[in-house]
Amino acid sequence: MIARIATLALVLLLAACGGLPGNVVVLIPDENGGVGKAMVTSKGSTVGLDGAFASAETDPGQAPAKIAPATKEQVDKEFAGALAATPRVPAVFRVFFANARSDLDAKAIAVLDMAVATANATPNLDISVVGHTDALGNNTGENMPLSLHRAETVRAALVAAGIPAAVIDIAYFGANDPLVPNRPGVPEPRKPPRRDYDPMSR
Fold first, then answer.
1. Do residues 142 and 148 make contact, with C-beta atoms less than 8 angstroms apart?
2. Measured between alpha carbons, how far is residue 162 from residues 13, 102, 116, 171, 194 in Å?
3. What are the tens digits of pLDDT across the range 82-119?
4. Which of helix, strand or coil describes residue 17?
5. 3-state SS string over 19-37?
């Protein structure tokens, strides 16, 4: 079993096969080194884990017992399969478009280049492209088609760069679900962040 704890750490509860006890819970730092907390409860007893690789033995029918911290090497070796199946934190890139346009300018292409480089370095790739607009114009007649065209433009650029079309899904929302809530008819120009991806801003 693998669970995400407050997005700060991973807990592994598995049957170990080597230097760790038969059943053990290990608190693992996230991709940025952050560590959350976990409480292991069984048979009316609770053990708290709050440090990197803090561990507790959890034999069936027994109260949990805190044990010496695991090492990264032990975890990498004994839980390799579980770690490989752990969902990755998604990389997010935002592509901005000129008002009422769906073509890519130089800044957008530079962001897509970063996205392609990340995709090429990522195994088991799965890409979602989501098109948006701001609140100017008619959402049904103008913004929804525009957001679709933007998503299609980004997908086409990714495919042209060698990303398999089969791993790319697209969605589009027009002026719905904006990054920055705004009143209808009010433009929301945004300067692109340094590292993002997701068609935004009409």
1. no
2. 39, 21, 8, 21, 23
3. 776 666 778 899 999 988 899 999 999 999 999 999 99
4. coil
5. CCCCEEEEEEECCCCCCCC
